[in-house]
Amino acid sequence: MKEASGEEALTEENVAAYEFNFYTEKDGVRSDGIEPLKDIRVSFENPAIEGSSPIDVYHVDEVSAPQKLETAETSKPSDDSVKTVIETAQFSTYVLMSVPAEKAHGPFWVDDDTAVTYSTLAEAVAAANEGSTVHMSGDMKASAVSGVVVSKNIMLDVAGDTTITGQGNSAGFTLASGSKIKTAERATFTMTGFNTALTVDTGAVMMDGTYVFTNVNTGINLKGSMSGSDQSKMHVTVSANKNAVGIDTTGSDVKYKNVTLIWNGGRQDGWTYRNMNAENSHIEIKDVWLYNSAANPLNLNNCYFKISGRFGGTSWRGGHVLAVYEDGAEFNNSTVVVDGSRINVIHTKGLTINNSTVTVQNSPDGGFNVNYGSTLTVHDSVLKAE
Asked: CA 293 → CA 191, 289, 314, distances in Å?
């Protein structure tokens, strides 16, 4: 197939083969095969294969070189499958081939127009129509995306492994309201060396995919939402620079839904207000002193939530890593683990725990510090100290 297509970068992930053969059998003896007398229409659907669109179809036999079927029709009923329709009078082998995206394209292209590519995200957004899909793939410098606002209700599709590298304090890009980002299956989107890498505005959404933000002060400035279809399909990892937090949140629209989030802070010495309004998510936070407030609620519904760290040594700050403040918080149908410090419930309407298990482990300061008129309300739940 490499020779027939001229694509030396082809791998097994870029092809799928089907063999169609029909036989008759009599007295245990099978015939040489049956061929149709005229073209028949054959359709089949299979899991999506890696690479770019469109997908080409080739006819393969033992005699001649593979022949591309110009009349074949391919479509994607979903992100996870490819449907192919061919008309043929030959029952033999047919191969679906997708050109490796990182080989065939520049960093960006719009919709299915792979003949035209763009060197910067700004150029691709300018060329896109309302509601278009802008694809990206490959390695690039921060200058390819810095300062860009992805507007027009665009879907930003990470079609193949993509790494964007900054110089430590580089500016990233912004998803405007109505725009979304997702990665292809088995593709990873990485941003490293940024001050603020990705800003997700109110009304914008991070969707299914694998996202990695490293060596950043703020990997994600979240004003919209992280919303996957399932925890297993959306993985976000943020690793902050020393003394940085890693994730910023602004506004009441911030939500985490069906997300696996690993958040490694840089031990900023001081509390930080962050919205943690989460549903059906797996969240692990390390070395972030987390406070909630009226503008930054802490509500966990059907979640696994673990936060670990300890700030301030033996001073009054000692024992702080999670503080429920102002409007209070709720843990519903969740598993909560606090490692290294106690849970502080202070100056607040209270913490309510419903049908949940809360474990405080490795804390020299006890499990809960409830004071300044605050309350701790527990229903059908288990509180543990380890």
From this structure: 30, 13, 25
